[in-house]
Known about the structure:
Blueprint: E1 56-57, E2 73-74, E3 97-98, E4 104-112, E5 133-135, E6 150-155, E7 160-169, H1 197-204, E8 221-225, H2 227-233, E9 240-246, E10 254-257, E11 265-268, E12 277-281, E13 286-288, E14 291-300, E15 303-312, E16 315-318, E17 322-323
Amino acid sequence: MSVPTEQKPSRPVVSVMSNALITATAATVTTAVVVAGTALAAPAAAEPPGTALSSTSQFGPAQFGPAQTRPAQTRPAQTGPAPFDDARGEAARLDAVRDRSGAPIHRVYATREGLTGHTTANGRRIRQNDHFVALPSRRVLSEDDQGTHSVRVCAPSTGRCEYAPVWDVGPWNIDDNYWNSAHYRERFADLPRGVPEAAAAHYDGYNSGKDGFGRSVRNPAGIDLADGTFYDGLGLTSNAWVDVTFLWLGDGPTGTIRTGTGEPLNVRSGPGTSYAKVGTAAAGAHVTIECTVWGQWIDGHLGSTPLWNRIGPGHFISDAYTRTGTGRPVAPPC
């Protein structure tokens, strides 16, 4: 599948050196990111324990040009969570919007990864129309078919969202956990939270306009999207600004998407299949359950139930495809 011709993305309305990237581009944040049409509050700092898997891989978006890939990197063997302190309750309030769970949301530039048949940083052979994302830090890499670290990606240009696991590392950098505060950031800690190093390099000449490997940054990408996420999940036809919710930084009951086929699950605007499809949830994605509601009876991979879970603003999935450890509600009624 050919890569769309890439135009230089318009610079966000605010400087990329600002924390206000969520206001980027001429498009406004859609209701897929705004709860009940109200402004989202600033969260307390909440930092995750990250993981690092042992793997050697070439990784990078197809948009980087012919024969241009990220250098292969040898990763340390997994020995458990990285030695981060739990920062919940930290006094500092960070300038970022959040969803109901407290997970931060940042607007970043997304590129299509492509690379069908190549191997991801967690050892997965990329399939046609695969559903996952890549983020530029090894600390949030999930194991294949698992989604300990997952994101909600919403495209303002299409109004669609996907919940997807982090199965690859990139774009551009491999140690730029820009979603964390400076105290927890591996590199580039002088940049504001939510600003990928590639964006600062591309727009403001940060690091002489180069990434962590010394390459000239040709686009401001902060996330790569696998083809299924890019085309089917978000309905994109070219690289675009997206709103990314870093779900593992939130609080609340969670569930894992299990469809039995590996195919993504439809996300509905209400508790039934007659409601409009508003996005997808990739198999293996780890989602936060905001509240529950009784709706249409569904026979699914995990059983038969009328229980539905709301996993985002106006986003509902059947509990018959959500592994929570119980067949009962795990969150309050909606």
